Request: fold
Amino acid sequence: MNHSPRLWTVIGCSLLVASLGAGATACGSEEENPLSARPFDAGEQVAFNQKAGGRPVDHNRPLEITAKSGGGRITDVTVVDTHGRRLAGELTATGERWHSTVPLAAGVRYTVTVNTEDERGAPGQRTMAFDTTPSKGVLQVEFGPEEGKYGVGQPITAELNEPVKDKAARALVERGLVVDTPEGVEGAWHWVDDKNLHFRPKEYWPANTTVSVRSNLEGVRITDDLYGAAAKPLKLEIGDRVEVTTDASSHYLTFRRNGEVINTIPVTTGKPGFSTRNGIKVVLGKQYFVQMRGDTVGIGGSEYYNLPVYYATRVTWSGEYVHAAPWSVGSQGYENVSHGCTGMSTGNAAWFYENITEGDVVKVINSIGDDMDTFGNGFGDWNMEWKEWREGSALLKGTQDGRHPMDQARLRPQV
Reply:
């Protein structure tokens, strides 16, 4: 008796399998089911308003696909350009017509795949390709800085060859400038002016990561007579988190790497009338030797200088450096006697020069001088609050909780 239920269970399963097998056979073969057939060539079912091959077609003309009378209906349309971008479109409820709902890109090739079905429900498919005409007005983008290794404070820049003023056009540009950031990093573009954008994260870049930027604007219509061009992508390697703080009142510089203080250096900063700017600056570059002259920054008379300077680390375009100043060693750590730069002994300057990298952060506090400009005199981007930074984005403005002119002049050094 104990074996009977198991016996009947096995028999029941066998009968079920047999029953299913018989049912499958009774339904007929795959060839008899129109839904399982391979798609037929639907070339006679659909008509395009663009011609395949031949001369490029006008990119200002929308793409339209229609089902021919008595030939069934369109079930799906996929249009992809040479950059893998899909062209948005709309299909009528009856499947009689599909049309593009956004402008075609200029100077690209589109591949169109149309899926159909006939009166019996059998699937059809038609594929065609066509090129679009290039645009006359071209928007070029150049990313900066140059590819390489930088500190955690380095912003990404995008310089346009043509001004973009319209808000909707600016939003299109921002969508097309894609920044690949480390996971969890929040960042945004900020329009400095009509031709320049900066991208920075909310906080400094995470140390020892990679950041890259590319443009998806090629062929995209920005305005009626301006289309995006191809752009060279950019990849930056981010190094250690180096933060330098210069206290103009205590006359000492503190050098931190990844949160740890590794050096404290006596310095002198700008004297009254030439006080060093307060705020966060980003290292712009390094020069082993610079001949610094007062007349290049409008300083003459009794304050004129003409000095050979070594181990010079630049933090503003107007000539503010951290550098060796052997002539002021007696004042370093005690008083401010420079014309705006941060001076230190030759030995300390050599150490600083070897340990600092372009893109590292240099902050000045407790100076009686003006504040660092946000734009136009180097990278003062970090002196702007995050909420205000987002307001400079055409995409993010007003989404949570000014524009500044960019001075491209490269002025000479001051000491």
About this structure: Helices lie at 4-27, 167-176, 346-355, 386-391. The radius of gyration is 33 Å. Residues 4-27 form the longest helix (24 residues). Residues 1-31, 401-415 have pLDDT under 50 and may be disordered.
